[in-house]
Amino acid sequence: MRGVLNEQTKTVHKPNDDHAHRLAACGALFHVSEESTVVVDLATAVDEGGASRCGRCFDDAGGY
Fold first, then answer.
1. What is this structure's pTM?
2. Distance (Å, whole) CA 29 – CA 33
3. What is the 3-state secondary structure (H, E, C) of the chain?
4. Which of 10-14, 20-24, 33-37, 43-47 has the lowest mean pLDDT?
5. What's the rounded Cα separation, in Å, for the pair 53 and 43?
C-alpha cells in the first residue's frame, strides 16, 4: 500500500484521491511543502524507516 510521508515529522498518511497533489486523505499535509513529502511504500516506511502512521488516516494508529 502506498502512503505519503511527511519527511519533517516522519508520519505516513493515506494518499488523497487527487494524485496530482501530494495531499493526505485527512488534510494534514495541506500546508506542507511538496519538497517535504514523498510517496512511499507504507510497510517499508513504518517497518524499516521508523515512520509512524497518521492517527486520522489509520484507525489502528491511535488517533489524536
1. 0.83
2. 8
3. CEEEEECCCCEEECECCCCCCCCECCCCCCCCCHHHEEEEEHHHHHHCCCCEECCCCCHHHCCC
4. 20-24
5. 10
Length of the chain: 64
Residues 35-51: tens digit of each pLDDT: 999 999 999 999 999 99
Cα 48 to chain centroid distance, Å, stands at: 15
The alpha carbon dihedral of 43, 10, 15, 54 has a sign of positive
